[in-house]
Every structure is written in structure tokens, then in C-alpha cells.
Amino acid sequence: MCNRRKSYIGLKTEVAIDMRFDSSFALMQNDLIIQFENISEDMAKYFCNKYFKSDDFDWISNQKGGVLMIGDYYFSLETMLDYLRYKYGVNKMFEHYDYALEEAMKDEYPICIRDWKKLK
Predict the structure, then answer these.
(1) Residues in a beta bridge with 74
(2) At what angle do helices 90-105 and 2-52 cross, to 10 degrees?
(3) Of the candidates 72, 21, 25, 75, which has an alpha carbon nearest to the alpha carbon of residue 46?
(4) Residue pair 88/97 in contact by the 8 Å Cβ criterion
(5) Cα torsion angle, 105, 96, 98, 69, sign
(6) Which of 54, 61, 78, 108 might form a disulfide with 103, Cβ 3.0–4.6 angstroms?
(7) Phi, psi dihedrals of residue 59, rounded to the nearest 5°
(8) Residue 42 CB: number of other CB atoms within 10 A?
């Protein structure tokens, strides 16, 4: 009988600990999401100012960190980061963007941003 009681108390304690962990994890998760969205917004502003001299952009479906629309151009966050990471100038960025769009329209896979710069 005592063993069952101890098990029950132990289980109850474990559940309480799990609930505290889940609660703090949910708060941490929300903080991380907010930080990601803020950083994505800052990255988009920087990208648009560098390549378009404008900060007039929108996120598709208002999902920060997803796909950015500026004028008639669309960029995923990953694509923006790659253009910045590999130090594309304005002309090279638009050259690659046009090339990638043409390849996609032919159902071909364009050369990635990293490798395309090496080839040009």
C-alpha cells in the first residue's frame, strides 16, 4: 500500500514538473518566434534598402520570415540571406534573379546563388 502511495505522489510530482516545463518552454518558444520575426523584419529592411533603395515591402500573407514582396520581385528569407552572405552587388543580384526566373519558367533548376557567383 505504501508503495502505491509513493508512486502516486511521485507521478503527481512528475506531472507538475512537466507542466512547469511545458509552460516555460511555451513562453520561450513564443519569445523565439517574436525574435525571429523581428530579425526577419530587420533583415528585410536592410535587404530592400541595399538593393532597392526603398523599405516599401510586404510579407506574403503577412508572415514575417516567409516570402517578401517588393514591387514585382519576390524573395524568400533564405534567398535574401544568400545574396547578402555572398556579397552580391545590386547589378549581380538582379542578373541572378532574372536568370533564376528564366530557368524556373523552363522547368529547370537554376544554379544556386553561391555557385553562380563563382561561375560569373
Answers:
(1) 69
(2) 110
(3) 75
(4) no
(5) positive
(6) 108
(7) -90, 135
(8) 10
What is the full DSSP assignment across 7-67? Answer: HHHHHHHHHHHHHHHHHHHHHHHHHHHHHHHHHHHHHHHHHHHHHHS----EEGGG-TTSE
The per-residue pLDDT for range 63-78, each reduced to its tens digit, is: 999 999 999 999 999 9
Portion of the chain with pLDDT greater than 70, in percent: 81
Place of cell 526603398: 54
Other beta carbons within 10 angstroms of residue 73's beta carbon come to 15
Q: How far apart are CA 74 and CA 56, in angstroms?
A: 13
Instruction: Quickly count: other Cβ atoms within 10 Å of residue 77's Cβ.
Output: 19
pTM: 0.75
d(CA 117, CA 45): 23
DSSP letter at 108 equals: -
